[in-house]
Design a protein that fits this description.
The complex is a heterodimer.
Chain A (H helix, E strand, L loop, with lengths): L2 H22 L5 H10 L6 H13 L3 E6 L7 E6 L1 H28 L1
Antiparallel strand pairs in A: 1-2
Chain B lengths: L3 E6 L2 E6 H17 L6 H21 L7 H11 L2 H6 L2 H15 L18 H9 L3 H15 L3 H10 L4 H5 L18 H9 L3 H19 L9 H12 L6 H8 L5 H39 L1 H49 L9 H32 L5 H29 L2 E2 L4 E4 L8 E6 L11 E3 L3 E4 L2 E4 L2 E7 L6 E7 L1 E2 L2 H10 L4 E4 L2 E4 L3 E4 L8 E8 L4 E6 L10 E3 L9 E8 L2 E4 L4 E3 L3
Parallel strand pairs in B: 5-13, 5-16, 9-15
Antiparallel strand pairs in B: 1-2, 3-11, 4-10, 6-7, 7-8, 8-14, 9-17, 10-15, 12-13, 16-18, 18-19, 19-20
Helix pairs in contact in B: 1-3, 6-7, 10-11, 11-12, 12-16, 14-15, 15-16, 16-17
Classes of the chains: A mainly alpha, B alpha+beta.
Chain lengths: 110, 607
């Protein structure tokens, strides 16, 4: 068992959930997502964010619109679709159950 | 001094150092390679490039005069290189989405033996995965079947053998692959490819191949050979089946990754400790699961029962399917074996062709029949089976066409052989009974005996169902019939009637005149040839001989008797299928109304 692998597995599980919850708070530009996650001490590469966004969009969980910017070409702003909302709600329930359970168990052990 | 160029990057004019630009291009190419199989690859790259352009712009508005290598490196660091993505969790979800994609596109799930949750071979957990069921249900069904009929064992073993392990998914890429090595070839590189695969010296493989071939060439001078040219056939099959290592990566695959001792040790160690753990935990698990299951079933018996029943139906269907496939495989194998036996038989009988065929045409047809009609399908089926097992699809149509046309050639040869041979059998000779000179003045009992020179059971003799014996340049066929009739006077008489086919009546008559059949009477003994000898000049033209012995009333005759003799209505007995070691002699007496044994039973009817 190596620790890196285990922690990256853990992160993998929650990354989509985190991204969706950032987007749920309002229309965002990808670098905003990075910034928000960074502020919560969750570092991800932009290079991994873009593919993930594309995948979520292709799964019809996200949609985007082009917003004119005052410096240069328009930017993509992402928001949740209805389907994405449902998906998020389900993930949130699961997360709450899980985090509750994990907390209980880890506290028991200590 | 560094050169700076202006580029139009995603709608912005960017001044950039040439070296920095090259770096950027390299980075984008690496991304493109990384996302090669990703759905929406274009869009991802586009987004990333857009973002980079934005960052460039930021840099420039901060007062930079141009984008330097350091800037590009900083950006790459924040975006991440494909290597970074590897360690990043998201790359795993690529696989996940691919799997999902597979399911959506209707491609069927593949059945794997589950190495992670196995007890024996992982068959049950693999099936459980496949049918989306609880593995306990599958295990119970298999156990029930095993204890009630011993029935579960066979499908389990078949599945264990037939279903690939889930480990092959990950291990597969490290494995060596079998390629022909045309760099170090003698003929087609089969031997050196095999040597690479098994990690042995190439001369060992070559010797193994050459040994049987050499002895065959040595034996070829003789009419009879015992060694089948199997290594020839095997070589050809390997040639057809093994792809040539053309590219560098194929050549590397051929030689395989070096397996070091540590990795072997490690894997054995893991396997051992795994087994122990599994054995321990299985007992605990079973108890726990049993408890849990009963609770669950009590709580939710309806749906559980439903699930169980549909699961059982699915599994029963699956087992039936497995059985049908097994039976079909067995039938196929049997047919193939039959073909193989025919092939081997015709190979061992092939030296006899000189006794049958004459002239260039017939010889050519005979060879054509052997090679194209018998050997080609054997090689073809073997090739097909091996390619099927190995899932090789290269050159499929070429092979199919080649085999089909070669086999058609075989049919042409066979037809030609039959037609040309048929001509040689068209006419029959003018046969007549030829009296043998006898001196049996006061013989009261004629003892019929065989010349015993024919059976040479040494290694140079081919015995084919005791029907045909070939010895050096003579072929012996047991085509001799014996008839017993009542003599019209009071002395024994013997006549011989020879029959033979030929292309014309004249040719048949000529053949009959040179046929040699020995018959000799000395005192009370009558020696007759048991079989007809045919040499290579005479050829086999369905020669046969009927010997008629006329026995006077009141006199006795002793005949060879064996259980195989069928007493025929017309009192003719074929001297076929004798086993000389088992022959016993029986005495008969001729009476007015026929032949009787000495204790008074009527023996033969006769005309």
């Amino acid at each position: 068992m190596n620790i890196e692998n285990t922690s990256s597995q853990m992160r993998k599980g929650i990354l989509e959930f985190c991204i969706l919850s950032v987007i749920k708070q309002g229309e965002v530009y990808p670098s905003d997502i990075i910034a928000k996650m960074k502020s919560a001490n969750l570092n991800i590469f932009e290079g991994t964010l873009y593919p993930l966004l594309t995948r979520l969009k292709n799964a019809e969980l996200l949609t985007y619109r082009w917003v004119e910017s005052n410096s240069g070409p328009p930017r993509k702003y992402f928001s949740l679709t209805d389907k994405g909302n449902d998906f998020y709600t389900e993930l949130a329930t699961t997360w709450n159950e899980l985090s509750g359970a994990v907390e209980k168990i880890t506290q028991q052990k200590i | 001094m560094k050169q700076v160029i202006n580029i139009n990057y995603h709608g912005r004019v960017i001044p950039i150092e040439i070296a920095a630009h090259d770096l950027l291009k390299g980075y984008i190419t690496s991304l493109q390679l990384h996302f090669e199989n990703e759905e929406g690859k274009e869009e991802i790259i586009n987004d990333i490039e857009g973002r980079i352009a934005e960052l460039f712009h930021e840099q420039l508005t901060k007062g930079a005069t141009c984008i330097t290598e350091a800037d590009v490196n900083a950006i790459i660091k924040s975006m991440g290189t494909p290597d970074d993505f590897e360690t990043e969790p998201l790359i795993n979800s690529t696989q996940k989405s691919e799997e999902k994609h597979n399911n959506f596109s209707g491609e069927s799930k593949r059945l794997f033996r589950d190495e992670n949750n196995k007890v024996f071979g992982g068959v049950c957990s693999g099936l459980a995965n496949y049918f989306n069921m609880d593995v306990i249900v599958v295990r119970v069904i298999f156990l029930l079947m095993f204890f009630s009929f011993g029935f579960g064992l066979i499908p389990y073993l078949i599945l264990w053998i037939a279903v690939p392990s889930s480990a092959t998914k990950s291990i597969g890429s490290v494995r060596k692959k079998l390629y022909r090595d045309t760099d170090e070839k003698m003929i087609a590189g089969v031997c050196s490819g095999l040597a690479h695969y098994f990690g042995i010296k190439v001369w060992i493989v070559r010797t193994l191949f050459l040994l049987p071939v050499l002895s065959m060439i040595f034996e070829w001078n003789h009419v009879f050979f015992n060694v089948s040219p199997s290594s020839f056939i095997i070589y050809i099959i390997f040639w057809l089946v093994m792809p040539e290592a053309k590219t560098t990566s194929e050549k590397l695959e051929m030689k395989g990754k070096k397996i070091d001792l540590d990795s072997i040790k490690q894997s054995i160690h893991e396997e051992m400790s795994d087994l122990k753990e599994r054995a321990k935990s299985l007992g605990k698990d079973a108890a726990a699961v049993a408890g849990e299951k009963t609770k669950m079933i009590a709580a939710d018996s309806g749906s559980a029962l439903q699930k169980l029943i549909s699961g059982i139906i699915k599994i029963v269907a699956f087992i039936i399917k497995a059985f049908v496939y097994t039976i079909l495989t067995i039938i196929g194998l049997a047919m193939f074996l039959m073909l193989f036996v025919i092939g081997v038989t015709s190979f061992s009988l092939f030296p006899l062709k000189d006794f049958l065929v004459s002239g260039i045409w017939q010889n050519g047809f005979a060879w054509g029949t052997l090679i194209f009609f018998i050997v080609v399908p054997i090689i073809g089926i073997l090739t097909w089976a091996i390619r099927r097992i190995g899932k090789i699809k290269r050159n499929r149509n070429v092979l199919r066409t080649t085999f089909a046309s070669l086999w058609i050639l075989g049919w042409v040869s066979l037809t030609g052989l039959i037609v040309t041979l048929g001509k040689d059998f068209k006419s029959v000779n003018n046969s007549f009974e030829e009296n043998v000179k006898m001196d049996t003045g006061n013989v009261n009992k004629l003892l019929v005996n065989f010349y015993k020179i024919r059976y040479h059971k040494n290694e140079k003799t081919i015995n084919f169902a005791d029907l045909i014996n070939a010895y050096e340049d003579t072929l012996y066929i047991d085509n001799v019939g014996l008839k017993i009739k009542q003599s019209t006077n009071d002395s024994f008489q013997v006549s011989v009637k020879k029959m033979v086919n030929g292309s014309t009546r004249f040719a048949a008559d000529t053949s009959a005149s040179i046929m040699h059949y020995n018959i000799l009477q000395k005192d009370s003994f009558l020696f007759i040839d048991k079989s007809l000898g045919i040499n290579k000049n005479e050829k086999f033209r369905n020669q046969n001989v009927v010997v008629t012995i006329y026995v006077p009333i009141g006199k006795q005759i002793q005949l060879p008797y064996s259980k195989e003799i069928v007493v025929k209505k017309n009192s003719e007995m074929k001297l076929q299928f004798w086993d000389e070691t088992k022959v016993e002699y029986r005495d008969y007496i001729m009476r007015v109304d026929g032949l009787y044994t000495l204790d008074g039973k009527a023996s033969y009817d006769w005309e």
